[in-house]
């Protein structure tokens, strides 16, 4: 069995279990699942854009210490 067949079976099993839940629970879980899928799609698009810019030679060196310092200052301010 290939990985996509296993995923489909797992998803089918999850949907069958969801069908046994009250409608309000199904709705809530469905909204959360859709939100998760939308976030994954957005992340994949960002990764594809980043890879495209790297392939086009638009990358630049990254100073990890500066990045962490900037992130930490935003966390404290936010």
Question: Could you walk me through the main structural features you see in this protein, from its secondary elements to its overall organization?
Answer:
This protein is mainly α and 78 residues long. It has one domain. The protein is built from three helices and no strands. The longest helix has 33 residues. The radius of gyration is 20 Å and the shape is flat.
The secondary-structure class comes to mainly alpha
Mean pLDDT: 91
- Indicate the proportion of strand residues: under 5%
Largest sheet entry: none
Describe the global form. Answer: flat
Radius of gyration: 20 Å
One letter per element, helices H and strands E, the order comes to HHH
Number of domains: 1
Number of helix segments?
3
Our measurement of the CA-to-CA distance between the termini, rounded to an integer number of angstroms, reads 48 Å
- Tell me the number of strands: 0
Contiguous low-pLDDT stretches (5 residues minimum) are none
* Helical content band: over 70%
Output the keywords.
3 helices, mainly alpha
Quick rundown:
This protein has 78 residues and is mainly alpha-helical.
Topology:
Layout lengths: L2 H17 L3 H33 L8 H14 L1
